[in-house]
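ok new one. same drill as before - structure tokens go in, u give me an amino acid for every spot. 284 of them this time. try not to just spam alanines like last time pls lmao
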């Protein structure tokens, strides 16, 4: 990533004595910018997880990158969620950490989603919004005060309702629908990088596995349900690890820390994306 310095900037004494030796191009860490910073489409997709587009009055030069913030909320929630599904430390229920489904995940994700929308980052906006509503919906399912599980019991008993056929079959179908949507998003992540693509590949796999666990509860096969629950938790734990990795990569880049951590850029397999939609329509 570099800045090409104009003659005016040289007159103002911004450029050091190595300007001529470097051919007029300086690394971002060596230049005090008087103008906009030009970054490659590949680096842009690494930082924002969305193709680079030209926006009028580009807000990316004025506001901080919100993507790592949303990912942080996702990662913290995912680690907790998956660890409990695997039963670490004797954990058996998500009720005790229902707060992650309302605050830790959704608030950070929703805030990041709004910022991504304002900045014109379409794909990352979609991802943030999608996971925000997922955690919120799961939080509602895990909070007895909403009375959803209790509504499946003739006596209004939440525990009895949570073990009912109707409740578990409904949640299983819901997770399977999510699985199909996550697979759809996975197809689009093939335009970004390998790490991000793996996150969605494993997320949709985990969604089907956990959905299968609920389905087995509805059929009374509790042993298989427990095995599927742990398998789904383990798969989602890998999702959390990958999310943590890509968040660290993005934060390091934003903080100008030289860490050569690969993400497996996939954008070079696709046509250049830094063109306007109108130009794409003309080509068609």
């Amino acid at each position: 990533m570099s800045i090409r310095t104009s003659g005016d900037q040289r007159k103002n004494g911004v450029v050091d004595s190595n300007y001529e030796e470097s051919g007029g191009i300086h690394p971002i860490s060596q230049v005090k910018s008087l103008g906009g910073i030009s970054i490659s489409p590949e680096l842009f997709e690494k930082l924002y997880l969305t193709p680079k587009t030209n926006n009028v009055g580009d807000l990316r030069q004025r506001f901080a990158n919100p993507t790592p913030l949303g990912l942080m909320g996702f990662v913290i929630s995912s680690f907790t969620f998956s660890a409990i599904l695997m039963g670490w430390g004797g954990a058996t229920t998500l009720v005790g950490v229902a707060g992650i489904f309302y605050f830790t995940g959704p608030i950070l994700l929703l805030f990041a989603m709004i910022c991504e929308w304002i900045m014109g980052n379409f794909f990352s906006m979609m991802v943030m919004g999608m996971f925000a509503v997922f955690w919120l919906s799961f939080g509602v399912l895990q909070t007895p005060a909403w009375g959803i599980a209790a509504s499946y019991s003739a006596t209004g008993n939440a525990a009895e309702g949570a073990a009912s056929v109707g409740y578990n079959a409904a949640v299983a179908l819901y997770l399977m629908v999510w699985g199909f949507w996550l697979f759809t998003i996975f197809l689009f992540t093939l335009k970004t990088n390998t790490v991000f693509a793996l996150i969605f590949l494993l997320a949709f796999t985990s969604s089907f596995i956990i959905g299968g666990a609920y389905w087995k509860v509805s059929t009374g096969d509790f042993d298989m349900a427990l095995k599927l629950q742990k398998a789904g938790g383990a798969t989602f734990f890998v999702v959390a690890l990958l999310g943590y990795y890509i968040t660290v990569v993005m934060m390091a880049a934003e903080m100008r820390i030289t860490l050569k951590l690969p993400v497996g850029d996939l954008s070079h397999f696709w046509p250049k994306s830094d063109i306007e939609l109108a130009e794409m329509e003309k080509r068609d």
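The chain has two domains: 1-40, 67-254. and btw The CA atoms of residues 70 and 111 lie 7 Å apart.
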